[in-house]
Design brief:
This protein is mainly alpha-helical and about 290 residues long. Helices cover about 70% and strands about 0% of the residues. It is built from twelve helices and no strands. Helix 3 runs antiparallel to helix 5, helix 5 runs antiparallel to helix 6 and helix 8 crosses helix 9. It is elongated. The two termini are about 25 Å apart.
Length: about 290
């Protein structure tokens, strides 16, 4: 952990803790900077990203299959059914669901982001019924089952120390500060409720005989809503935390929502200053070691 001599602090903020995981990310970035001819280099995913140490290759493939299932389950109607038929489309989803179910076994044991036996059965049941019966209604219910499971996993993760979105944020942004936790928890709840509502809407439409309406909802209407909501959340998050990168959009937003104007923005500034100071310190250590 960096001592008082290692970090430059905003006088209004105490030093943040730099744990071993964050220090390792900074060290990898410092090595890149030390070896750069310009004396600086932007951090990349290759420098920063590391999958969880306990994530096996089969679990990683399971996560990819689960993400693919969430996206494709709603697109299984329309042109795909016309091209290959209900049974073939359902068989494709069943194969992906099986890969997700098998791959996610043992993921985060004891935590709520691991699928239960009931959820695995539910994940496989509806596409299996659609394959067996060649039923367009059963196929339309596949995304309802998938969205219900997504909602259950997200809402159940609220009982864990870190919500599902916070865990994902820390994988993609390992330097993320601890103070993002409450925001991620609220965001996880909001997305969980959206997927739960989608499951209800899809089920009501499909069982009510409105298969085309159910397919339109899961095919493009829901994803349009998700896209608009994600864009709105991005802007809200920038205005809330006021933490900016070096990109052109961040520079525009920094002028619209100056960090210094809010306490949360000043806190984000203090965090960024401490990370940059520690990064510079580690880069100088790496350069000194290279000169020896």
């Amino acid at each position: 952990m960096a001592g008082s001599s290692d970090t430059m602090r905003d006088p209004g903020h105490a030093a943040f803790e730099i744990d071993d995981a964050r220090r390792e990310v900074l060290r990898r970035h410092a090595q890149v900077i030390a070896g750069s001819a310009t004396g600086d280099a932007p951090v990349t995913a290759a420098h920063a990203f590391r999958p969880p140490a306990d994530l096996t290759p089969s679990q990683a493939l399971g996560l990819l299959a689960a993400a693919l299932l969430v996206m494709l389950s709603g697109l299984a109607g329309g042109a795909l059914v016309e091209a290959v038929g209900v049974r073939t489309a359902a068989a494709l989803l069943l194969a992906i669901a099986l890969a997700a179910s098998l791959g996610l076994r043992g993921l985060s044991p004891g935590h709520h982001d691991s699928l239960s036996a009931f959820e695995r059965i539910a994940l496989l049941a509806m596409p299996a019924v659609a394959v067996a019966t060649d039923s367009a209604v059963a196929l339309a219910l596949v995304p309802a089952a998938v969205h219900a499971i997504v909602a259950g996993v997200m809402l159940a993760s609220l009982d864990d120390e870190a919500s599902l979105i916070e865990k994902a944020a820390r994988i993609s942004q390992p330097l993320a500060p601890d103070f993002i936790g409450p925001y991620c928890r609220k965001l996880t709840a909001a997305w969980g409720l959206l997927f739960a509502a989608s499951a209800v809407v899809t089920t009501v439409l499909a069982l009510g005989g409105n298969v085309d309406a159910a397919q339109a909802w899961t095919d493009w209407q829901l994803w349009l809503l998700i896209g608009v909501s994600s864009a709105a959340e991005f802007l809200w998050r920038k205005a809330w935390f006021r933490y900016y990168g070096q990109g052109p959009l961040d520079r525009v937003l920094a002028r619209m929502f100056p960090s210094a104007n809010t306490e949360r923005g000043r806190r984000s500034q203090a965090w960024a200053m401490q990370m940059r100071t520690e990064l510079a310190r580690l880069a100088e250590i790496e350069r000194s070691a290279g000169r020896c």
